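For anyone still unconvinced, we reproduce a single protein record, the chain in one-letter code, the fold tokenised, and leave readers to judge:
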Amino acid sequence: MKSVVIFGTSEYARMMREYLLSDDLEVVAFCVDRQYLDQPSIDSLPVVAWDETPTLYPPESHSLFIALGYTNMNGLREQKINEAIEQGYNLQSYIHPSVIHTNLTIGDGCVCLEGVVFGNHCQIGKGNVFQVGVCVAHNAFIGDYNFFAPACAIAGDVTIENNCFLGTNCTVRNGITIQNKTLIGAGCYVDKSTDPESVWVPQRSTTLQTNSSDLII
């Protein structure tokens, strides 16, 4: 059984420990930057300072799983992945057994949760997170450090560069490029290539001035 250290102590980190255990991996500790070290253990596992981790859990015998979300347009996750690589760690990925893919190329340190679908000949970089039900069609090229919220739909021949955030139930049409640090809001339809660091939001729902019990359905 391979030994893994998880970077992070959030609910997401604890959830990912359960996923890793189900994949026959042994999680032996959590770690965080020293200034955030405020508890000695989580779920009976030690929590240690990141600067001590290579000594306590050497990269020769442990991999590192980066359990961080999309803070700073995924910049924090990018930073810690690069620090882990500099320390000599292999980045642990997690791909749920329900994920469907054909001729997929995927980098280290990625997360693919339940029901993710990749079409034929997709190329995925490192440090990407695909939440439940994301669909990426054929011949997509996805760079590094992107975050895909649940049920994103990415059409074929799309390029998504680096450090992008795609919100729940958004849709990206075929053949376009989502440039670096684009933020796409939940429920948005993107029909043309984006500019770097652009923000896309959809029309929002409104509230009727009535009570649901007054409606006849």
